[in-house]
Amino acid sequence: MVKQTIQIFARVKPSVRKQQQGIYSIEEDEKLTPSLEILLPRDLADGFVNNKRESYKFRFQRIFDQDAKQEIIFEIIAKPVAESVLAGYNGTIFAYGQTGSGKTFTITGGAERYSDRGIIPRTLSYIFEQLQKDSSKVYTTHISYLEIYNECGYDLLDPRHEASKLEDLPKVTTLEDPDQNIHLKNLSLHQATTEEEALNLLFLGDTNRMIAETPMNQASTRSHCIFTVHLTSKEPGSATVRHAKLHLVDLAGSERVAKTGVGGLLLTEAKYINLSLHYLEQVIIALSEKHRTHIPYRNSMMTSVLRDSLGGNCMTTMIATLSLEKRNIDESISTCRFAQRVALIKNEAVLNEEIDPRLMIVRLQKEIADLKAELAVATGELRTEALTEAELHQLEKLIASFLEDQDPESRLEVGADMRKIHHCFHHFKKLLNDKSAIKNPVSSESTHQACQEPLEGEEYTKLRDLLKQRDNEINILVNMLKKEKKKTQDALYLSSMEKNEARTPQNSPFISKSPASQSTSVSSVLSQDHSIYRHSSSLLHKKTGMREEMSLGRQEAFEIFKRDHADSVTIEDNKQILKQRFSEAKALGESINETRSKIGQLKDAITQRHLQQVALGVSENTVTPSLPDLQEEKLRSQLEEEKSRYKSTFMRLKALKVEIEHLQLLMDKAKLKLQKEFDVWWAEEAASLQVNSPAANPQEGVKPVPQQDQPRHLSKKSSQRWEAEDGADSVDICDRNARRILPSPRPSEHSQGSSSSRTQLQGRQISSIPLTGDSQTDSDILAFIKARQSVLQKKCLGSN
Ligand SMILES: Nc1ncnc2c1ncn2[C@@H]1O[C@H](COP(=O)(O)OP(=O)(O)OP(=O)(O)O)[C@@H](O)[C@H]1O
Question: Which ranges carry the Kinesin motor domain (predicted)?
């Protein structure tokens, strides 16, 4: 806050007549404030006896004589006020004096020369120059221009000014808020970003003032003008905004018209001709009297508008303009007297700062959000909306890094969000349940736990399931082997039966007399392994995507195809490696658990040792042991060793986990490939068989069951086959033909081979078997026959 009386300056207008100069003198003493002495000329008309005062002395801050230039007026009077406005204080400069004393010339300036520019244009120039120089703040400048005439306010910047009469323009009125701040209604504010824009507004207002002149409003003499610069400043990033106003006031002529009697100009009782000035004087008188509590600001519009400037929050300066000519002596004395009273008024200027309402809203909104979050935690209230995918992902990552962190002191920071806290608990519970579920069914509890400790729950479950599946697969393979053995036995039995029963196929357990019973017979033979197949199928389906509806014959063929496929070696190898890696992981897990418990023990030992040392120090009254504790140091180095072991083992386990995952992927891929290749092969075989089967040739119908003498009508190759089956002499033929209809271990080679001759052969061989006409059933039958031939071939090879 700056406490300051209103600064008063005097400016004497240049006199037209040189001889008038002797009626005043200016006394300037360096130690004292300058004084203006107005000398009353002796008027001989008053007679010899004259007891009137001959001079009046008035003190001013500074007195500018007639030769004072506009520039010095600005420098001494206006510049300090402009600076305080730039600093954020309100400022007012008003010119008071009789008509023609140079108020307008001082405030606005003369129209003739550039050097005659008055306080307003010079102040605008200075302000904009300073704003440009100062980059530490963001400034906004607005201009308003108010004219008060006959107690009515008019907006000189109202664009309607030109076209309308003054009486028709909306009046500017004063409004007072509860804090007694005055607001002006209908007074427009115009932003000016440059000096030029501001000057244009000044000229616009002055022009409007001239246009509005009427006989009632004789020039500027009877009106007051208040040109106001509204300056807002704000530091970037700060919420505080400063507002400052600079009123540059050109008051109406203050003259008191003296009605004298006959004769000369006398100091007679004055008559107020301007009500506003009268009220202004009342306010000034009231303010200058120490004990006056009521100040009649509200009596006039001008005093209301200038309320802050007079005895309020403002740095105010008055310029008393004097036209010190003999005829103006009394008015000049009156002006000086007025100035002396004004000089007694004390103002208290404060920085006009306020918080930017927009920033305030943002700040309050944030505060509300923070408080709500705090309240939600305090009351246990949950936020209703679920966590987003991104939030969950972030949280999982946090949990994972928390679990992996070896530092027992590490913390999981999820903030005050109850949803996240609950999610963490849920996650840990799941981990715990997974562990205990794994621990119980296995006999080697401790080793299993040790293996699982460093692995995540889900990962462990996955690996465990895979192991189970592998075991199942092994079981299936064993079953398959059994089945193959059994089939070989069946084949041997068949072979002997065929021999013994002198080629009576109708008695064969595989071929019944009627087509209807034929399929039943086949399925009844195969049904013995049905349960095994179904189980195997479901497992294969799980791992390789094999269709559940795969027929039994096809499944059987697939098993053989798989067994003989080149990739099966790779799959088997990978299986073995995987088993190996699992046992390695188990061993590493055990080792990690062991190391962890060792770390725990060492930490306890260090704490114990430390406590012992402290207790020892207390008992011996020494603060710290003088020598380093060797035992503690040894423990610490052991701890470090264990920690690094833990770390390296953990890293190995991690790498192993990656390898296991990779192997599993490889196996899955290989199986999928196998499945696809098998599908291709199967489709090819089925197509070729269908072409040659009776079902595909309705004209042939179902062929009768071959009779005893029928082989004679068979083609050479076909009879050779049957013959070969009859005796060991024909093993070579048997082998060759059997190979041709067997699924090839390499389907690619198979497809590239002499498929036409093979198809022909197959057609001949199979055409002797009566089929049902149903494509699915027939393909099952044919597949079964092939499998049977495969077994026979093996048998041939075995006996060879
Ligand atoms: N210091 C000065 N130097 C030169 N000319 C001046 C000076 N002061 C005033 N004048 C001239 O005197 C005349 C009257 O001055 P001005 O209009 O400023 O008086 P005023 O006090 O504003 O009168 P009113 O009350 O009627 O508005 C103008 O022509 C102006 O140019």
Answer: 5-345
Which superfamily does CATH assign the domain made up of 2-43+52-349 to? Answer: Kinesin motor domain (3.40.850.10)
Per-residue pLDDT, 769? 60
Name the pLDDT band for 107 (thresholds 50, 70, 90): very high
- Give 224 Cα–ligand 1 centroid separation in angstroms: 15
Check if 14 has its Cβ closer than 6 Å to any atom of ligand 1: yes
Residues 6+ apart with CB under 8 A from 418: 376, 377, 380, 381, 382, 383
Angstrom CA distances, 394 to 403, 420, 430, 632, stand at: 14, 10, 18, 41
Nearest CA to ligand 1 atom 25: 99
Q: Is 462 labelled a binding residue?
A: no
Of the candidates 512, 510, 530, the one whose C-alpha atom is nearest the C-alpha of residue 522 is 510
Q: Which ligand 1 atom is nearest residue 11's CA?
A: 1
Average confidence score pLDDT of the chain: 74
Amino acid letter for position 586? K
Task: Look at the block and give the residue holding tokens 């509200």.
Answer: 298
Q: Which residue intervals of the chain bear CATH 3.40.850.10?
A: 2-43+52-349
Distance CA 710, CA 604 (A): 92
Q: How far is CA 719 from the centre of its chain?
A: 83
Q: Average of pLDDT values for 756-781?
A: 58
- Residues β-bridged to residue 4: 347
CA angle 363, 367, 371 (to 5 degrees): 175
Of residues 710 and 588, the one with the higher pLDDT is 588
How far apart (Å, rounded) are the C-alpha atoms in residues 589 and 610?
Answer: 31
CA dist., res. 416 & res. 517, Å (int): 75
Round to whole Å and give the CA distance between 207 and 212: 9
Instruction: Provide the H-helix boundaries in 77-118.
Output: 79-86, 103-107
One-letter amino acid of 691: V
Q: Is 379:114 a contact under the CB 8 Å cutoff?
A: no
Q: Which residues contact 776 (CB under 8 A, 6 or more apart)?
A: 551
Mean pLDDT, residues 375-389? 72
pLDDT digits (tens, 9 = 90+) for 174-221: 998 888 788 999 999 999 999 999 999 999 898 888 766 554 444 456
- β-pair partners for 63: 10
Q: Which of 529, 540, 547, 536 is nearest to 787 (CA)?
A: 529
CB 760 within 8 A of CB 750: no
pLDDT in tens, 35-82: 999 888 766 445 555 666 678 899 999 999 999 999 999 999 999 999
Is the minimum distance from the CB of 64 to ligand 1 under 6 angstroms? no
The answer to whether the annotation marks 104 as part of a ligand binding site is yes
